[in-house]
Amino acid sequence: MRGSLWQLGQSIIHRLSEADKKAVARRYFASEADLKKTVLYDFHVAHGGKMVPFAGWSMPIQYKDSIMDSTVNCRENGGLFDVSHMCGLSLKGKDSVSFLEKLVIADVAGLAPGTGTLTVFTNEKGGAIDDSVITKVKDDHIYLVVNAGCRDKDLAHIEEHMKAFKAKGGDVSWHIHDERSLLALQGPLAAPVLQHLTKDDLSKLYFGEFRILDINGATCFLTRTGYTGEDGFEISVPSENALDLAKAILEKSEGKVRLTGLGARDSLRLEAGLCLYGNDMEQHISPVEAGLTWAIGKRRRAEGGFLGAEVILKQLAEGPSIRRVGFTSTGPPPRSHSEIQDEKGNNIGEITSGGFSPCLKKNIAMGYVKSGLHKAGTKAKILVRGKAYDGVVTKMPFVPTKYYKPS
């Protein structure tokens, strides 16, 4: 079962011009010798990890259990993901907030220290360069994580604007945390298992909050967040301590938390209705079209001041022409680029992610349709291998989220 991550690589290559195909093939499907490896690579292999190329890294797509079993176990017990291929970085300086607000849609200034939010880096046309979770550690320190496949373009984009900002006297610098690894611990056992490894009271750390604390003897950046819809944490740990931490988490869970690969990570995020950059968001899709209007801070809507603000604020006022929606469907699971039609056979959009939900035991998908046809309950036809199957627009998330928030 190769899953949507394999489909992602194939679809990206399919969409590009012939001149670009070789370059992207090298990026997503490099030879084994060219691939970067996380510090847990040997640990994955020893535990039966099936390693595949992804965004220039050799990553486990699954282990000895199936992707379906691994997905269900994460929701019932817990999953431990190595996401060290993603890029963590810090912005520091008294002007780091005002600098970042030129590049993202979030109200960074309005964040309380120790809290974070999902945001989007935009381009001049209002399209999404990448999505990112950003945290205001302090007023002069921002920590953020960007996607592995977007690392090079994101860093080049940030650096270009930082040089111009500093040339005008702005006080901002950055550090890319290549000395750290990133683990994601997700599921109902995440908090009780991790509590065994730290003296800090995790019951006082809520969804979206950030702390620097000692975990298993190492100084870690801990964010209560994740990419599954479950309660959980992303843990930035010094790379020399990553293996010991992974072993300790698995040991303290008494076998209930399992190593979990990119295949189940994709199933989990789809069930949670979360975007995968490169599939559900791209440089021609705006945050409004992607259903991320909530991520545009109220002050930012009034003031603008970020790249593409004119386009995005116009869409907020007038409504976008297309919208991201969820679907359930009959027949084979829809995949990226499956055509969406109305009941009369007219093209109304395209699927961007889809598959069989291991937890719901039915097909789920998300895609873009013309505005006016985006309301829950709207019937549609979805083409899979040239044949039309019944589909219906469905509210997301497909599986209820279980983020840990104050009651």
UniProtKB/TrEMBL annotation:
Residues 323-399 form the Aminomethyltransferase C-terminal domain. It comes from the Eukaryota. Substrate binds at residue 234. Keywords: Aminotransferase, Mitochondrion, Transferase, Transit peptide. Its main location: mitochondrion. Residues 40-298 form the GCVT N-terminal domain. The keyword Transit peptide applies. Coiled coil: none annotated. The keyword Lipid metabolism does not apply. Belongs to the GcvT family. This is Aminomethyltransferase. It comes from Gossypium harknessii. The lineage of its organism: Eukaryota, Viridiplantae, Streptophyta, Embryophyta, Tracheophyta.
